[in-house]
Protein 1
Amino acid sequence: MAAIQIVRFHTKEGTDEAAFAALNERFQREVTPTLPGLVRREATRADDGEWVLILRYTSKEAAQQAGKRDTGDVAMAFMSHIDMSTMSAGFYEIVSE
């Protein structure tokens, strides 16, 4: 059954937001296509600076494994700018479309 992952976070204090947005675009182009089971990734940013990632996977299992697979340089650079004290992630099985 397909699943959605919702990831919320703020970047670390002092992060250049334009540079982080560019890094997000690199992640979208270079990492996203390599993640098995990932159908779609959307990145959003609120006025208060909170980022919300919405990721659709073919299954909950694929979603739960994805974070273990994106360990390349771009993914690690992306993660290094996240204030982990603000990060939350949840997995949700799709029950209707």
Note: Helices lie at 17-31, 60-69, 73-80.
Protein 2
Amino acid sequence: MSPRLIQWIFWPTAIALVVGTCYYLWKSTQPRRHGAPANAAGRQSPDGQSDDDDDDTPQTPETTNVKVVYPRRGAMERISVQVGSVEADEVLLQAKVSGYLKAQYVNIGATVQEGDVLAVIDVPELEKLVQRNGALVEQAEARVKQMKAKVTATKADLDAAHAEVIHADAQARAATAWVSYRGAVYLRMKELAAAKNIEQRIEDESKQQYESARESERAARAAIIKAQAAAHAFGAKVLLAEADVEEAKANVKVAQAEYERTTEQFKFATIVAPFDGHITERRLVEGAFVRSAAEGGAAQTIFAIQRPDRMRVVVQIPDSDVPFASKDKPAFVELDAFPGAKFEAKISRVAKTEDVKTRLMHVEIDLPNKDGTIRQGMFGKVTIFLDKMSKQLSVPSSCLAGKSKARKGAVFVVRDGKAFLTKVRFGMDNGSRVEVFGLQDTDRVILAPPAGLADGMEVQSALYEEPELNLDPAP
């Protein structure tokens, strides 16, 4: 068979298959006519037509099954449903001394206790400075002892000076008594010489002895002044020595403070855990140079440590809810990582101010995390119960069949087995329920109207019992 003949046979056959397939798919998508019962045996009329093709019996529309709820009074709460993200108490551990990372004892994911040594920085020059300052403290303390010994010696000299004053005073009194005696002798010798009872020479000797006694008295008086001056001088030296002692003690404090400063600074070479937690980051390795955060420039983080036992969920509250948000308001936290789980909590902190750019207020909710399953970075939905509303009728938000900016819309109400589109006005909408005006307590409102539901369509309704909301959940 020639190739040209094969092509003449293949292409018509392929085209016929494609056309037949398309027709079959189109035919299968056409809806069946309602009200025409199927012929169980697939009978055809005598003329070869199906019974369905010429059946003129009236058709009955299908009945739609729906769920209905009654409008409720007092069930409308002011709630705020926002996206929340989980944050942990995290500390970036940075060095306060420069040096080379000598050792690391933990890695990412390690669980540590408060005070555990995490890393050590090699700072030999600082270590030597600590030793030098320690020696200076010892030197200053020795200086204090030296000054105290000087005070003791100076006080002894002062006591000796006081004794010398006493001795000089005694000598002065003795000299005074001797002067009196020599004066009396001289007067008697003078009288005897005048009476020519003794030689003139004896009178002259007596006078000389009297004058000598007077000079001795003057010398004794001068010795008293000298001894007193020496005592005053030694008293001043005692005060000076005592001041030297106080200065030496102050120098000890200065040296001790410098020693303690360098010692504390040296302690910064050992990185310890500030609290119980786990290591989430390690940014340097052994041998890397670590620059002190106190030296300026970009700070170098060695580790990041998180406290896992308590997490906080951060929520941004919109301006309309800000007046109602306060501490201890109940809330539910639903995290995407834990489907179906609800964490009961309360507002822990509010910023009490709005961000001028976003008009949102920062709110934090603490979550206990004893088992450590909640991690930083998780997110989910946070429902905060802000306030109870009025007794106005409200329905679930899913009942709405249409809503406009003018707070007007419609819901489907079931009456006599049919769904009627009823126009209503809306009030407060908290995301789960909405206030409605224009309904009665006895109206049966369709919940989540199905697609294609039209005004006047027959429906089969079943009452849906709404669960009661607990407005005061215990954390």
Note: Residues 126-267 form a domain with the Helix Hairpins fold (CATH 1.10.287.620).
Protein 3
Amino acid sequence: MERINRILQNKYFQEYLQNIYKWEINRKFCRHDFEHSLAVARIAYLISLERGNNFPRDILYGAALLHDIGRWQEYEGGIDHAQVSAELAEGILEEAGYGEKEKKVITRAIREHRGKGINNMSLLGEAIFEADKFSRLCWQCQVRDECYKYKEMPARGGLCY
């Protein structure tokens, strides 16, 4: 997992997480911190194993760890964080040693992770999308009754979708 370690040590990755932290410091709803991204990586890994997709772990973890890194730009300027996260991820992936094909697979999954209006979603995109939702424990959230995601979600056992 050498390339994952390079992502974690990347100065831009760390800077983007700090930017998100600053925007979300007083947020009462779910945060988009490192723990969230790590949970998404672990759950996506399990989903892919169960489905027999067998993505290399550093591809799957790379997509999951980077899927929300542009969230601060959505707060700052209303830019879709999935799109900007994919753009920001390219440089980090390059520095971490990922090849062009790998970067395309990962950035596509990042763009797809919100799942809104996407036809022919990639298998990696599906895994990241589902893991992103399963990582949220809405059923035990103290402010779920104030959350639009919880109010809009169909009965899914307390999982935000």
Note: Residues 139 and 158 are 4 Å apart (CA to CA).
